[in-house]
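The protein record quoted for completeness.
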Amino acid sequence: MTTSEDKFYHAQITQRVDFGPDLWMVRVRSEGEFKFIPGQYATLGVEKDGKRVERPYSIVSSPAEDEIEFFFELVPEGALTPLLHRLQPGDRLLMRKVPKGRFVLDTLTGKTNHLLISTVTGVAPFVSFVRTLHKEWKEGRFGRHSQTIPAEWREQTLGIWLSGRTA
């Protein structure tokens, strides 16, 4: 099976940090532009025996960073994490060109308190939120007119967020 070049980037692993025998982080550099909003995910994959194996992974990095970071937890009987666990800096993996997800930080409706609860790698989108908000705070842009969501995405994001609300 060959990958469709119009749907995938071949992302190169630039860094790997092992936090334990079954928990690690990688940073990748995609071969093209990958714009995302904090809280979104990327679909990553590898090819094995002529088949593509893909799974979604929340993005840890801020959109302002040059590389894209992911946290992984090894699922020994899983379809993908054992394959990802073998990868080292310099290796490549597949990454769909379009990020997805509606779990974005609401900075548009004036809400200022957010309760963030997670376990293990589920902390990834929260780290992306915090890194982005910290950058804005250092630049004096934190607060009511936060730039967490780029201006061109604000209307679309607010529409996505509102469409997922229940009355």
